[in-house]
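Before relying on records like the one below, remember that each one covers exactly one chain. Contacts with other chains, cofactors or solvent are not represented anywhere in the record.
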Amino acid sequence: MAAASMIRAPVGQNPRLAPGRGGGVVRCSLQGAVVGGRAEWQSSCAVLSSKVAALGAHYVNGHVAPPAPAPPQNGAVLDLVPVSSINGGAKNLPQPLRIADLSPAPMHGSQLRVAYQGVPGAYSEKAAGKAYPGCDAIPCDQFEVAFQAVELWIADRAVLPVENSLGGSIHRNYDLLLRHRLHIVGEVQLPVHHCLMALPGVRKECLTRVISHPQALAQCEHTLTAMGLNVVREAFDDTAGAAEYVAANGLRDTAAIASSRAAELYGMEVLADGIQDDCGNVTRFVMLAREPVVPRTDRPFKTSIVFAHDKEGTSVLFKVLSAFAFRDISLTKIESRPHRHRPIRLVDDANVGTAKHFEYMFYVDFQASLAEPRAQNALAEVQEYTSFLRVLGSYPMDMTPMTAGSSSTISSSDSS
């Protein structure tokens, strides 16, 4: 019912001041003859009627409407006008929802929640800050937890390492990419600068053990040997966590390999700076989200896929790779992982015996956007040769300079 719609009351019935929409009060104006009722009621309605008549018009949905036509002479008509409409009280009514009220979390910025594996001071935290400047970084104790944090809407994005220029691929995250249904929406490449650190006052000659992430230990293997340290290398969950562990337990015979930020956070003293075997040590991280980004052709894109085939021989893999080569699509990575549900295939031959073949899932990154017809045609051909094909994501490439001191940020992959 409109706010100023006319409600007719039977002649002789005593109308009251009724609540209007939104908690307003409805005024009663009496037009025509008044019959029955008390004198007080007649006086009140007469005053209200005179005020409405003085206006000459009333408001309907915020607009001035012409005066109502004269009522029939055989009865009284009550013109109900909300006081809130006349006095501007409509501002107190419930406001309709706007598109901003229904929008998900922002694509980037200070309100974005980004999950990473490790504790504060980890390289993954720095990568999250480079991918999404000013984000709210959420530490997770395992890679699996970071995936689940995004799936359960605890985090908006996850930034996880997939390969290092010295240590190679992080196989655990490749397996998790296939197990979970998240999409790669971007990549970020972070220069890694390792430090050897211990509790304040501890000398290198007193060390018997060095702990850190297996990747960090592998990236510093030759340097530690050249330093003449007779220490045992032990793997830890992450680099910053190793520094935190040494500091929390007061281990004066143990050093950690981590970032300079981790040394500051946990009160450690840097014994040696830049101990990675190669100054060009870079880790590649992928940014994961619940929804994929829309592929574009106005900037360099990369696409990641995973596939498997159930036919014998290597000719199938050759045909798959040829589908990209014939279309001049460059491959940037090929990674094979054991087929989780069918790791071994048996081939029986009465004359030769039983042959055992390993089954693999193949991960491929290629430089093309799914918005390009050549990439679409290549995947259509790949699908003919494979028993399983899944696109993990088509996303902008990280084009920032590969310098150790670079602090520039990439353009967010889901900025559109």
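Residues 1-36, 56-64, 75-81, 404-416 have pLDDT under 50 and may be disordered.
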